[in-house]
Amino acid sequence: DCAKVCPTGAIEFKGKPRIFRPLCTACGNCSDACPAGALRLVGKEYTVEELMKEIEKDVLYFDNSGGGVTFSGGEPLFQADFLLEVLKECKNRYIHKALDTAGFASREVLASAMSYVDLFLYDLKLIDEKQHIKYTGVSNTLIKENLRFLVDSGRAQDVILRFPVIPGITDTPDNVDDMAEFISNLRGLREINLLPFHDVSEKYHRLDREYLMTVRKSPPQEKLLEIKEKFESIGLRVKI
């Protein structure tokens, strides 16, 4: 039944059932028609009011733990209008707000969010622009400029840097040295978190998608400690 109701022909039964993801529009027809309930559409759209009701369920926990809400993604700044409305509502309710971002957004969007965000979790991957384009598809100029903007705006103490440690890509001596030099020129930054790479290829295979990363192993502990020592040498607190 699910194959029959698919408007794009994304589902086929040749051997085992297969969903051809590039054709799938996430219309939900297959999940409605599946008699066994094997297919389920994951994800839900919320209005600002609906989302705030969900957030407010945890206010007591926030108050007791000193925690709050972290907006992540993907890139939350890509949904700037909705994000700003939720941030405003959280601020009105005295809820702590953290933004997990790669900084790849317009200056205007970042400046608007800055008025409401208490903590920025700011990703930095590669300093060399050509390498950044090679592995992410975009220049890092805007990312670096936006971090400078946060620092120059007096928000350095509200920024925790996050550095994904990917063997052979971000953990090279040149990139770590360049990263340390770049950060050392931004006064007031205090902390960086090292995020060891984890192989997620199995998730791609389950979704019948091509996994383009050639890396499969997490970085060894000695490499993490080496990078930790480098960042500590420029005065940063480092967490792994």
Task: Characterise the protein shown here.
A 6-stranded parallel β-sheet has the order 3-4-5-6-7-8. Strands 1-2 form a two-stranded antiparallel sheet. It has helices at residues 2-5, 29-33, 48-56, 59-65, 80-92, 107-114, 129-136, 141-152, 173-184, 201-206, 221-232, and strands at 11-14, 16-19, 68-71, 96-101, 119-123, 159-165, 191-196, 237-239. The radius of gyration is 21 Å and the shape is globular. The model has no long low-confidence stretch (mean pLDDT 93). With 240 residues, it is of the alpha/beta class. The chain contains 11 helices and 8 strands. It has 2 domains: 2-33, no CATH class; 48-239, Alpha-Beta Barrel (TIM Barrel).
CATH class type of the largest domain = Alpha Beta
Structural class by sheet pairing and helices: alpha/beta
Report the C-alpha radius of gyration, rounded: 21 Å
Count of DSSP-assigned helices: 11
The best one-word shape is: globular
* Alpha carbon gap, first and last residue: 49 Å
Q: Tell how many strands the DSSP assignment holds.
A: 8
Q: Roughly how much helix do the residues carry, as a percent range?
A: 40-55%
What is the number of domains?
Answer: 2
State the fourth-level CATH superfamily of the largest domain.
Answer: Aldolase class I
Uncertain spans, ≥5 residues at pLDDT below 50?
none
Strand order of the largest sheet: 3-4-5-6-7-8
CATH-derived topology of the largest domain: TIM Barrel
CATH architecture of the largest domain: Alpha-Beta Barrel
Query: Main β-sheet, in a few words?
Result: 6 strands, parallel
- Roughly what is the average pLDDT, rounded to an integer? 93
β-sheet strand percentage: 15-25%
Write the element-wise H/E pattern from the N-terminal end onward: HEEHHHEHEHEHHEHEHHE
